[in-house]
């Protein structure tokens, strides 16, 4: 099941909503910013309470 998370683009600073798959936690996900279209690298983990926690957001 996909879960949503809010992040800020490291390029333009605008908020983005991303859908994350809990089974892919620990891997790098690259998604384009919905405003400036530049690639964003997202690393996330699943916490002890089974919620997704964004660990790192950076420019590619």
Protein model, in words:
This protein is mainly beta. The chain has one domain. The chain contains no helices and five strands. The strands form two sheets. It has a three-stranded antiparallel sheet with strand order 3-4-5, with no helix packed on it. Strands 1-2 form a two-stranded antiparallel sheet. It is elongated and about 35 Å long.
Globular, elongated, flat, extended or rod-shaped: what is the shape?
elongated
DSSP summary: helix tally: 0
Summing up helix and strand content along with how strands pair, one would put the structural category as: mainly beta
> Over all CA atoms, what is the radius of gyration?
11 Å
Oligomer: single chain
Characterize the largest beta sheet: strand count, sense, and whether it forms a barrel.
3 strands, antiparallel
Note the run of SSEs as H and E: EEEEE
- Share in helix: under 10%
Strand order of the largest sheet: 3-4-5
Note the beta-strand portion.
over 45%
Q: Mean of residue pLDDT?
A: 93
- Contiguous low-pLDDT stretches (5 residues minimum) are none
- End-to-end Cα distance: 26 Å
Number of strands: 5
- The number of distinct structural domains comes to 1
